[in-house]
# Entry
Amino acid sequence: MQKLLITLLLLLVSTGAAAQKCQHLCGPNLPHVDMGTYIGSLYHGIEDRMVPAKITIWQEPIGGGRRRQGEYFFVEADERVIEGFIFDCNWLSDNLLKCQWKDLYGKGLVDFEFSPDRSSFNGRWYKEYRAVGGPWNGKKGN
# Structure
């Protein structure tokens, strides 16, 4: 339990540094509307297991429309925190958000299927060309 609390604390502390990097990777630093922070897990392909993950998704005004972006963190077996970013997000339906992702291990696509009240999601990430991927899920939290 203490290990999990320390890990989640590391995820919370890491958020500021990731936002600065996202400015470079994800586009200009524009005002945004917070869509939410979700705590859950994602499949770590190298470790071949689900690992703790946190993602914050927001929307930024771009021209006349809105584009969703975000930052995420996941924790490896050695407790190293990996940060990544989602960008170029588009709603395919009322509850299905498709984005691109980028982190230390590469880049690819992710589909987030949200519950009707946006309190949780079940998703799936894919590396380029959908050859490799895995589940990603979360529930709204801090």
Q: What stands out?
A: The first helix runs from residue 2 to 26. The first strand starts at residue 33 and ends at 44. Confidence is low (pLDDT under 50) at residues 4-32.
